[in-house]
Amino acid sequence: MLDSIDRPSGEPTRQSTSRYEFLEHLGSGGMAEVYRARDKELGRELAIKLFREGADSPFDELRREREIQLLAALHHPGLVEIYDAGTFDDRGRSRRYIAMEFVAGRSLAARIRSGILTHRQVADIGAQVADALAYVHSRDIVHRDVKPDNILVTDDPAYGYTLIAKLADFGIAQFVDGSRFTNHDSVLGTASYISPEQARGEDVGTPSDIYSLGLVLLEAITGEREYRGAPLEAALERLHRSPVVPESLPEEWVQLLAAMTLDDPAARPTAHDVAATMRDFIRASIIASRSAGSGRRARRSRGTESLPHSVGLTDVAGQRPGSMRFIALVAVGNALIGLVIGLLLGLHVWG
Fold this sequence. Notes:
- This protein is of the alpha+beta class.
- The protein has helices at residues 58-73, 108-113, 119-138, 196-199, 206-222, 231-237, 251-260, 271-304, 321-350; strands at residues 20-28, 32-39, 44-51, 82-90, 93-101, 106-107, 141-142, 151-154, 164-167, 174-175.
């Protein structure tokens, strides 16, 4: 299905294949390169994940094949969907590929670099990623690498959210029963976001993903990565101190983020509970926004109506009651002035 393609250069490749036309090199990872491509059979854009030639070890090969099988079995709105997989000959080299959904947006990491997100946007992202994790966890799978770079965000509102977030890259996932996709002695994950149990080299379960998501949401809402520095330093720092959740955040956010990043995995909330709590935050945000809008409209109304009880009422001459009262008062005043003048003239004549 695939012919040879140009080496990634950041520019669109001129090569085409029997089915896929490569349009743009999107990025590179430790095991693969990713291209934006067009499916000439179906006329849609997609992403091609092209694995590097030759596996470094049997564990890497197993990891690649397990990722393909795993992605093919998962179907959820919060996950990047796989369409096709295969192998092709690239100038005499056998290369494996995955054709998957193209998400026309940016990574959460890029969004954070461009500026702090609103609380509502963070809640929208958190609810969707937690929902996706709940689905994955229900199938006894741990992602193990939840980080801003692996969350893709688009500005298209849907499903009641102001933006759409999708969780990607299951390359180092594992089953809860301990069957790993990688060397048993390795500690995989991104140092700034791994859980304490990952840092200690222990077996991890679904609560590890919750800890990582907590760090991701904390970074999204503050704009600052909690554990920085060299990989080893960042990994070990969480063993000496808990994440600092700013007390300036709303109390409900402080409580949730603190619970998600507890050192004890058993004490952390489930992905389902996190998603439900995030949706509560979203509902509260909508209600507050509506109440604020109603208050502003009411204030504007009070500022433009001096006599609210008479709005819409007119007399037979088309005048508002307030205007009629003013006219009547003017008439009475004129009559009184005339009476006074008449009395003064009368006194003058008689005098």
